[in-house]
Amino acid sequence: MADAHVFPAGPLARAIEAIVAAGGSEPREARLVAANLVAANLAGHDSHGIGMVPRYVGALLEGGLRANQRAEVRLDAGALLALDGHSGYGQVVGVEAMELANQRAKRLGSCIMALANAHHLGRIGHFAEMALAEGLVSIHFVNVRAFARVAPYGGADGRFGTNPVCIGVPLGNEPPFVLDMATSAVAQGKLRVAYNKGEKVPPGRVIDDQGNPTDDPRWAVVPPFGAMLCFGEHKGYGLAVACELLGGALTGGGTWHFPNSPHSDVLNGMLSILIDPQRLGTAEALAREARAYVDWVRASPPAPGFDRVRIAGEPEREARARREKEGIPVDAETWAEILEGARRLKLAARTVERLARGA
């Protein structure tokens, strides 16, 4: 990557922790947020990693993101939970909500958890991985209340957010299946990264402000905005609407149906469904059939341009192993934006630089 900085994960997390702390977060919160963001970079999801820091800083200063909030239980009906994140860091209130949901699913066999009003939850795969660590299957529907950047199928302007869907399934002795995807053709953060790097994007990702196809990511990043497209045309569009109805309306957090605003806050609602295969009585069958099926799929001869067939979750594990060894690359523009965010919180850029390089 041209003009990129490369940082070891540990020092980079300490640098980001210092920025979050400068925004008023208590030490525990600063550590959780920084660790979560850096973990996203390690997994290769730079769109949900430390590049979000400038936006978080803006949201803090505007008041749309509130430091040191906790997930409040609004309804506790055993296997049915409703919580409110009170615009707190999603990396904190989301973890608290999932910890409670995991406990209930292990005790009762299943849990449906509705989390409303969390600030940006980050990489949703993190919450699936929390469930997987307990041997649980999990399904997550998430809506985005920030700005409308994604066009409906057949539409020419943005009407909703990137609205991710995530599914985690344990595979016995095999590393788990973790499907974590935006319902847009690409995550908005990936277009931000492409814009910062001066790169074009493949067809089918973005339209301009007249609804025309374009390969320029600027239309999804800076005004005047065009819109992003859903993956799979009407199919991704249908899932995106489902995320609004389930992650937004059903959780009580609300859906997006407003004119775009210039504010930096990103609010998420998440409906999570957790199932314990042990309590269901199918854990052995799941492990046996999963291994047989994954072996069958991977036996497909690779198509031209591919080295082998992978399942969801493998690219992230490969990226994590590589970046833990080689470091995390951060493009120069993104790093400059992070340092500017630190300055906005009265934290010297040289302090952030020193921490990130382990000095």
List keywords for this structure.
359 residues, alpha+beta, Ribosomal Protein S8, Chain: A, domain 1, 2 domains, 12 strands
What is the total number of structural domains? 2
SSE ordering: EHHHEEHEHEEEHEEEHEHHHEHH
Task: Report the mean per-residue pLDDT as an integer.
Answer: 95
CATH C-level class of the largest domain is Alpha Beta
The H-level CATH homologous superfamily of the largest domain, spelled out, is: Malate/L-lactate/L-sulpholactate dehydrogenase, NADPH binding domain
Determine the number of helices (DSSP H or I, runs of at least 4 residues). Answer: 12
CATH architecture classification name of the largest domain: 2-Layer Sandwich
Write down the CATH topology of the largest domain.
Ribosomal Protein S8, Chain: A, domain 1
Stretches where pLDDT is under 50 for at least 5 consecutive residues are none
Within the largest sheet, what's the order of strands? Answer: 2-3-4-11-5-6-7
Structural class: alpha+beta
Measure the end-to-end span. 24 Å
**Radius of gyration, taken over Cα atoms and rounded to an integer in Å:** 20 Å
